[in-house]
Amino acid sequence: MARRIIVDPITRIEGHLRIEVEIDDQNRVVDAWSSATLWRGFELILKGRDPRDAGLITQRFCGVCTYSHYEAATLAVEDAIGVVPPKNARLIRNLIQGAQYLHDKIVHFYHLHGLDWVDIVSALSARPDEAVDLARSVCETPYNCSVTHYEEVQKRLTAFVQSGRLGPFAHAYWGNPSYKLPPPANLVIASHYLDALSVQRVAAQMMALFGGKNPHPQTLVVGGVTSVMDALNTSRLGEYLYRLREVKKFIETAYLPDVLLAARYYKDEGIAGIGAGVKNYLSYGGFPLDDQWHGKLFPRGVILGGNLSQVYEIDEKKITEEVTHSWYEGQGAVHPYDGETRPNYTGFDEQGNLKGSEKYSWVKAPRYDGKPMEVGPLARILVGYASGDKKIRELVDGLISKTGLPTEALFSTLGRTAARCLEAKLIADNVEGWVLELVSNIKAGDQRTWTRCDIPKSAQGRGMTEAPRGSLGHWIRIENKAIANYQAVVPSTWNASPRDEKGQRGPYEEALIGILLANPDQPLEIIRTIHSFDPCLACAVH
Amino acid sequence: MALDEMFSNQSEELRACYNDLMKRCEVHLDKMHQKLPPPKDRWNEILNSHGVSRRDFLKWCSIMTAALALPPVFTPKVAKAAGMANRLPVVWLNLAECTGCTEALLRTAYPGIDDLILDTLSLEYHETLMAASGYQAEECLSEALEKFAGQFVCVIEGAIPMGLNGKYLTIGAKGKTGYEIAKEVASKAAMVICIGSCSSYGNIQAARPNPTKARGVAEALKISTVNIAGCPPNATNFVGTLLHYLLFGALPALDRLGRPLWAYGKRIHDFCERRPHYDAGEFVEEWGDEYAKRGFCLYKVGCKGPYTYANCSQVRFNQGVSWPVMAGHGCIGCTEPDFWDKMAPLEKPMADHAPLPLAGVEATADEIGLGLTMVTLAGIGAHALGSVFRGVGKEKGGEE
Amino acid sequence: MISSMKKRRQGRAKPLVARKQWSVAMCINHWAMAVCIVILIISGLYIGRPLTIGAGETWQKFSMAKVRFIHLIFGFILTALFIWRIYLAFFSRFHADWKDFFAWLDLKSVYHQVKFYMLITTQMPEHTGLYGTLQSAAYGFLLLMVFLVVITGLILYAALYRAGLGGAIYMFSRHLEGVFGGLAGARLIHHILTWGFVLFICVHTYLAFWYDIVSKRGTISSIISGRVFEHSDI
Ligand code: HEM
Ligand code: HEM
Ligand code: NFV
Ligand code: SF4
Ligand code: SF4
Ligand code: F3S
Ligand SMILES: [Mg+2]
Fold first, then answer.
1. pLDDT in tens, B54-81
2. Looking at the structure, do residues B100 and B224 belong to the same domain, yes or no?
3. Which of A142, B142, B194, C234 has the greatest number of beta carbons closer than 10 A?
């Protein structure tokens, strides 16, 4: 007898996500539905407005990846106009986006995803000296690592537990057999959980230095950036670098080693490919490296069916969205330029479950060439790896040799989480170069941060970029100098997608199939796999 | 008593007023001390473990005291309240929003006291941060409502969609609407703090044409709330409001839009570092021009600082690292109701405001005004000619 | 007064007689208002779109502040004039009664008047009061505009200067701010009204001349001298 499990709200994500699964007698997931339960209607709100306002508005899709929408909208309008921002603007944008990546990945691994891997209660019983040894086994100079420090952490955690007021840690799944880390590992990562609270603030400040504030920076404009004074101010650049080094140190001596620890103890799950999902991967390419904006730090491409021997070039015409199972009116798969957003809510069935065979989510179903695609860190790393990108190959090979995992183990929940960390390292390694490039360009006398441009009477354009959670595209049509149509297909739209016309599941749904629950009343494994995508539902629906 | 000394030069009235306030504060702090559940972690130990000295802490307290417009004698009370903040149960609801406000609070000063207060807040329910999901999460909420009824602070992030009977937002296995949840939780709370412009006034989802009929909490639930406006707001404004509640058990003085006056009493423009340039008539003409490099005023590229009440220009963001005007982009008025519509286009001065349904059709007030003037002048010309032609005004005797 | 007006329409080729139409107060008020409004329009539009003065040291320049200062001075003069005008409407012994602003309630006459202005009929309608029906509506509306511009202006002023007078005004204006949708709303309405005044001046001045020519009663000079000329029975 199949049994239905509803997990709503899925917490430790951005937004309102509901997951329903059906499990068989062995508690194995046999079917799954992913549903977003909030719609705000941005695509309708944007209509009729000045295209230059689109960036600041779409930024409010999400308070986590704020900058990405700001950038995508700006790129879309720039594409419509045909204007290319100057070199300094490109570099400053990269610096802001870089800061966002670093911030986002740290917060995700520790504060949003960490408790799926780490049993805080088990950390209380660890021996601090063992924890020190363990930390040293994955890193020469581990972050904030000493017996006294670990004791301190344990003391704080114990006081917390003894107060009887667990607050945000109450009713968690402590002790669930799916937690596989030994106590010392739990203690090491738990201590970094606390450290990360501070480090992420530093990363946020990096964004604010050129962005004006974080979240929701306010410095991008169609044609460039506005923070020219900050760019020309060497001490400002120094402040950025100083913070970058602090964050980088954390990534190298805490985040990366912690992922190695997780990989050590959850190795089997990686090898078994648990949580792999659709195995189609898409990356639009991100972080432009040259002034033609062609070369990208993250290469662009498509991988199908987990076949790493072939990377396809993206044909933008093959990107479509459809709403067969989404709470909208409309028929067939259409390209975003022609997309529309007409809500048509049909609610739950009599039992209060999702109407899985009808409409059941506010997320639309994006498809590439008719196929559901996973986007995000794993997709980027795989596309980079498969296209032979030197830096990415090095990182992946390093991970593989350190963990002893086969490359295929990347197709899993664990792989997704590890890929995110590799990416953080990649960004941390490259940001400094952009700062220096900026300095030397300004020294050479180029102070331009904006290219003059005006909104055309009618035009269309798209902005494609890589947000922390994956490939992000905004499509805009301008008529009478105002926005006539606006469609965003967001990373979490791809990943949280419901089924399509053909009944193909979206990536979250597919990734859950086959997962074994240790205790169906504690959906830890479901949450772990869903979290590995880093869901952002405000993004997905908008 | 210190108070008396302090106000010996002041009017009797003021002294009496502060005496009164101090008494109220003492009574309330005691009451809170009795009533609030025990802390998870002792405040002094938290300070210690973060390497914050007693002196630093007191310095922060005196800054907050001044910020809250209290005389310095209140500093020890503020310290006491701050130490109690981690005992105050908080239920945090995320409704129709972007989570930017949560993010903003997670990213406050470092290393600072605000962040310690926020880190150690007793969050009984907060979907973005809590470990439990699904049924277990809902259990946390119902437990908190029961255990801390009438005691907890309800913080709401996000607007309430009222269209479709509230169904644009449902949370939990039972599919309760955001409206239902907010109503229930707010009714049991000691006070409701709206964090951000979404819960305060509806914000972006309520921008024209407001497809989901999103409303601010006060309007939707017909209750009064403290509105920490901003998109996102400055964390200091939130912490200050919490302290005020702990000190007096009451809301700070609010403006007509529910914003604490101590934080939202002045406009961005009034304390802006570019203000001298405004008065001198020195404006940035386009992004990145020579004037932008010299830090001229952003008025002509759309800064809405003159119409926006908030303290960004004083406290800035991310521990004073920057704020929008410092980054060379004008203020967009994010602490004001309906700013997306009222201040649009955001990168044009108010004189270029385009009434929204017509936006982009080059329909700013000046353009329409000038157009109408032309038409009027043409009409006058025609009328004058017509008059001559019809011979109006010719001496017609009796007819006149 | 009304009977005298009726009478004056009856005769034919009767001698022209000067008749006092406006009090001196009314004349002064009118022209002071006119001057203020013109200055306010110019300075106001400048405030909306100031010129950038790039040369020179910041601390030596004060151009925006000066224009705003001028605007405020004349704004307050206009405020005073408005209050005075209202006072006159209710308490003046001369012809400027508040009732005169409601002549347009006589809709039949409005119809006739429109036809006259539209040049459909050349027959000049009769005035039953001080103003023609359309005039009454126009002047009434105009005073309403002055009222609104003063209110929104004061709201903007109070937000600028929270001390002294500004602070005192703020006690009231903070409640009004909401009515206009915050400072931005008040500013926008203030700005739109500016164009209302521009339009008004065009039409008002033209019609003043036109009416003068048509009626031959010296309307233009009347608002200066206070007298109209009419054909007398005597
Ligand atoms: C016929 C009368 C008036 C006209 C045509 C007028 C016109 C204007 C205009 C066009 C602006 C600029 C608005 C913009 O584009 O953003 C302005 C601003 C302003 N006006 Fe007036 N105004 C008038 C009367 C008044 C009065 C009576 C006051 C009040 C005492 C006043 C106070 C102000 C203030 C305080 C500002 C804002 C200045 C600033 O932000 O620095 N105005 N006015
Ligand atoms: C050519 C000359 C003008 C003539 C003959 C004229 C005549 C008049 C008359 C007869 C009234 C009604 C008086 C009253 O009941 O108050 C009036 C009202 C008014 N006029 Fe004029 N006007 C002239 C030019 C202007 C100009 C240039 C302005 C403004 C810039 C102006 C502004 C006003 C205002 C604001 C009112 C209404 C206020 C009020 O009723 O006191 N006028 N005008
Ligand atoms: N999905 C998503 Fe975002 C990201 N990263 C998107 O563009 O988080 Ni809110
Ligand atoms: S107020 Fe702004 S930052 Fe806060 S939730 Fe709303 S949209 Fe996000
Ligand atoms: S930049 Fe904005 S807030 Fe600052 S002085 Fe200029 S208009 Fe005012
Ligand atoms: S846009 Fe908002 S953040 Fe402050 S400077 Fe303006 S109120
Ligand atoms: Mg979309």
1. 898 999 899 889 888 899 999 999 999 9
2. yes
3. B194
Q: CATH number, domain at B54?
A: 3.40.50.700
Residue B109 has pLDDT above 80, yes or no: no
User: Hey, which residues 340-359 in chain A have their CB within 8 Å of chain B?
Assistant: 343, 345, 347-348, 352
Give yes or no for a contact between A170 and A160, defined as CB atoms under 8 angstroms apart. no
Give yes or no: residues B42 and B157 share one domain: yes
Q: Is the residue at B93 inside a domain?
A: yes
In a domain, B132, yes or no: yes
- C-alpha closest to that of C229 among B400, B378, B217: B400
pLDDT at A309 over 60: yes
Q: What is the pLDDT of residues A422-464, one digit of tens each?
A: 999 999 999 999 999 999 999 999 999 999 999 999 999 999 9
Active site residue A421: no
If asked whether residues B285 and B354 sit together in one domain, one would say yes
- Host H or E run for residue A223: none
DSSP string, A79-140: HHHT----HHHHHHHHHHHHHHHHHHHHHIIIIIIHHHH--HHHHTT--HHHHHHHHHHH-S
Interface of B with A in 362-381 (CB under 8 A): 362
pLDDT for A282 beyond 90: yes
Determine contact, residues B117/B43, Cβ cutoff 8 Å. Answer: no
Which residue segments constitute the domains of chain C, with CATH numbers given? 21-231 (1.20.950.20)
Task: Indicate whether C153 pLDDT > 90.
Answer: yes
Q: Count of CB atoms within 10 A of residue B249's CB?
A: 16
Residues near ligand 5 with C-beta < 6 Å?
B 268-269, 272, 274-275, 278, 297-299, 303, 305-306, 325, 330-331
B114 & B232 share domain: yes
Residues B93 and B112 in one domain: yes
C9 confidence band (pLDDT: 50, 70, 90)? very low
The verdict on residue B273 lying in a domain is yes
The answer to whether residue B157 scores a pLDDT higher than 60 is: yes
Mean of the pLDDT values across residues A280-287? Answer: 97
Please say if A14 is a catalytic residue: yes
Q: Is residue B398 part of a domain?
A: no
Greater pLDDT, A323 or C161: A323
Of C122, C134, C149, which to mutate for an interface test with B (greatest number of B Cβ within 10 Å)? C122
Looking at residue B383, its pLDDT comes to 87
Question: Are A477 and A337 within 8 A, CB to CB?
Answer: yes
Residues B306 and B203 occupy one common structural domain: no
Cα–Cα distance, B59 to B189 (Å, whole number): 32
Q: Which residues of B touch C51 (CB under 8 A)?
A: 281
d(CA A187, CA A201) in angstroms, rounded, equals 22
Selected catalytic residue, list A43, A62, A322, A542:
A62
DSSP B40: S
User: String of b and e for B53-85 (b: at least 16 CB within 10 Å)?
Assistant: eeeebeebbbebbebbebbebbbebbbbbbbbb
Position B5 pLDDT exceeds 60: no
Structure tokens at A136: 């040293």
Report which DSSP code applies to A1: -
The count of domains in chain B is 2
Report the pLDDT value the prediction gives residue B117, as an integer from 0 to 100.
Answer: 76
- CA A436, CA A250: separation in Å to the nearest integer? 22
Using the structure block, give the residue that is written with the tokens 């210690």.
B48
Do B160 and B218 fall into the same domain?
yes
Residues B220 and B357 both lie in one domain: no
Which domain, by its residues, includes B285? 268-371
**Mean pLDDT, all residues of chain B:** 89
Backbone angles phi, psi at A475, to 5 degrees: -120, 125
Q: Write the Ramachandran bin of B288: left for phi over 0, alpha for psi from -120 to 50, otherwise beta.
A: left
Per-residue pLDDT band for B399 (boundaries 50, 70, 90) equals very low
ipTM for the predicted complex? 0.92
Mean pLDDT of C20-49: 91
B110 vs C102, residue with greater confidence: C102
